[in-house]
Design goal:
About 35% of the residues lie in helices and about 25% in strands. The chain has about 575 residues and is α+β, with helices and mostly antiparallel strands. It folds into two domains: about 290 residues, no CATH class; about 160 residues, no CATH class. The protein has a 20-stranded antiparallel beta sheet, sandwiched between helices.
Length: about 575
């Protein structure tokens, strides 16, 4: 799933490009946006020349053996939305042509409602929802294609919108009214601009005409704090977190009296901003970002663990490991944060906090904080199957005080435990996922296998898989941690609260493709929604056109890490 998320984001935003023409200039300096801008995403345009040629992700995208799969991918993305039955679908040639619009730079963002006196603000809230979305596109060299795309989209609509020519900020524009809402559109000079609110539309036009407002985003303390994460790259993103609170309170469906105490109790203001960028560095593609803010105890950063230098799951890595993912949370911090928020929720919710705690203590046989203290917060997975078979995946959950942790496990699982036995310092448990024991006899099926060591609760769907990994623990053969992982971790701070890697060169891509096709054939007979059938058909079509060897030709490794310090939580992800 980590791989899927990364590739989906990068391919959809960065890789969905078919041209190697020159990259466009940034449509606008984000710092000049209105000071009320809550978030933006900036795409700087298709990279060119050697930057594109040397990058492994673009090399995969441009590989002749990936052409048909690429076309199928673009087709599934661009034809995913529901269309009127009487409207013809885009051909692959048209899709490839429209995809080149992403050669140029664009910026999409959101501006919150302007401050107003309490009475005026209440009236505005009563009047309806605010939609501060806006879009800026550098249409240089794409004027004709853009106009063609706009006409194509409008012709595909089931509702005929009302179009009203007008002038705003000295620019000829078009007001587009539909039952679902109103949008504004203008094309002038090198720009194409759209917004859902007239005031936002006018403000953005002023910025592009060299008349930015007196209050600019560059003056925001949160934006200034994030500047180091917004320098360069093909893509950058920024979110001012405290502004989200104002956005929530501004919603017509929101009860300020009920929500405000909860948000105050969460101390949302301790999170200042989320920011980052995607950069191409030779063969590698790097995603770098962070959640910045005040990490003092008592705020939202309490949910993040401080990190460990040597998490217990590292001892189970071996040279044949294909994927490894490890993260650490702070269970007690999450509990205290939720309790603090729910206690301020008012009404029946706040009244039920103590009864719920009492019920949990009765069920667990100990206070909830004591139960949570038995966990270290470490959660990890290791996969050694070249085709990523689920029965070869092992899960790890960090524990403290094995005796009490085992007692708690027995309490929670109850009659689902089919058998339990000790072998040295390890306790093996066989768990029924399908039913429990009763006085009438055994009614259990679909078993899962678990083992509790002094530091970890380990689980796998097959007993053989579980025992294979336990043989590598201290006391068995010494774990041979791949040198690559040691080298990768050494690049980051000593204590990490998250680390992952994927060795693509160990993958059996042909076997993986065959396995996915088999699974799709098995599920084809199951009852499912039309949407699920559509998605499976798209995946099947894409798989049929993929040449597996193209992936091993260009993809080598992926490494990710996250850590917490006095400035917030930082993360990086490398794909090479």
């Amino acid at each position: 799933m980590r791989l899927a998320r990364f590739l989906a984001i990068v391919f959809a935003v960065v890789g969905l490009l078919c041209s190697s023409q020159s990259a466009a200039q940034t449509p606008v300096d984000p710092g000049q946006l209105p000071g009320r801008t809550i978030f933006y995403v900036l795409w700087r345009g298709t990279p060119r020349g050697e930057i594109r040629k040397s990058n492994s992700l673009y090399a995969l995208w441009d590989d002749p053996d990936f052409v048909t799969a690429r076309a199928s991918f673009i087709e599934s993305v661009m034809n995913n939305a529901e269309k009127p039955k009487d409207k013809p679908a885009l051909s692959r040639e048209e899709m490839a042509q429209y995809a080149t619009l992403l050669d140029n730079a664009f910026l999409v963002g959101y501006v919150r409602r302007a401050e107003a006196a309490p009475a005026a603000k209440a009236a505005a809230k009563e009047a309806g929802a605010w939609n501060g979305m806006f879009f800026i596109y550098d249409r240089s060299g794409k004027e004709e294609l853009l106009s063609k795309a706009v006409v194509r989209m409008r012709s595909a609509e089931t509702e005929i919108p009302k179009l009203t020519p007008m002038t705003m900020a000295g620019v000829p524009a078009l007001k587009v009214e539909r039952k679902s809402g109103t949008t504004y559109w203008a094309e002038f000079g090198k720009y194409a601009v759209s917004a859902s609110e007239a005031r936002v539309f006018e403000e953005i036009l002023d910025v592009l005409n060299g008349k930015p407002s007196r209050t600019q985003l560059s003056q925001s303390a949160n934006y200034q704090e994030a500047k180091s994460l917004l320098n360069g790259g093909v893509l950058e993103f920024f979110l001012s977190v405290p502004s989200v609170k104002e956005l929530a309170l501004d919603s017509p469906a929101t009860s300020t009296a009920q929500l405000s105490p909860v948000l105050n109790a969460l101390k949302l203001e301790s999170l200042h901003c989320l920011a980052g960028h995607v950069v191409l560095e030779g063969a590698r593609t790097r995603v770098e970002g962070g959640v910045l803010g005040d990490t003092a105890p008592g705020g939202l950063f309490d949910i993040f663990a401080d990190g460990q230098a040597n998490p217990a799951s590292l001892a189970y890595l071996s040279p044949d490991t294909v994927t490894y993912g490890e993260t650490q949370i702070n269970p007690l911090g999450i509990y205290e944060t939720l309790k603090r928020a729910l206690s301020q929720a008012g009404g029946s919710t706040a009244q039920f906090v103590k009864p719920l705690e009492a019920a949990a203590e009765t069920r667990l046989g100990m206070p909830l904080p004591d139960a949570l203290a038995l966990t270290t917060g470490e959660i990890a997975t290791i996969q050694a199957s070249p085709t990523l078979e689920d029965n070869q995946k092992v899960y790890f959950f960090g524990i403290r005080n094995k005796l009490d942790a085992l007692k708690l496990t027995r309490t929670l699982l109850g009659d689902r435990i089919s058998s339990e036995r000790n072998e040295g310092s390890t306790t093996f448990l066989k768990i029924s996922l399908g039913g429990g024991q009763s006085s009438a006899g055994m009614t259990q099926w679909n078993f899962y296998h678990m083992a509790m060591t002094p530091t970890l609760l380990v689980g796998a769907s097959k007993s053989e898989t579980l025992r294979k990994y336990l043989a590598q623990t201290p006391g068995g053969s010494d774990p041979a941690i791949p040198k690559f992982i040691q080298t990768a971790r050494a690049k980051y701070p000593e204590k990490l609260n998250g680390f992952s890697y994927f060795d693509f060169q160990k993958m059996d891509w042909a076997g993986l493709k065959a396995q996915w096709v088999t699974q799709l054939n098995k599920t084809a007979m199951n009852e499912k929604t039309k949407e699920a059938e559509k998605n499976e058909k798209q995946l099947a079509n894409w798989l049929s056109e993929v040449k597996p060897e193209v992936f091993s030709r260009h993809l080598h490794t992926m490494v990710g890490a996250s850590w917490k310090d006095a400035n917030g939580v930082h993360f990086e992800e490398w794909l090479e």
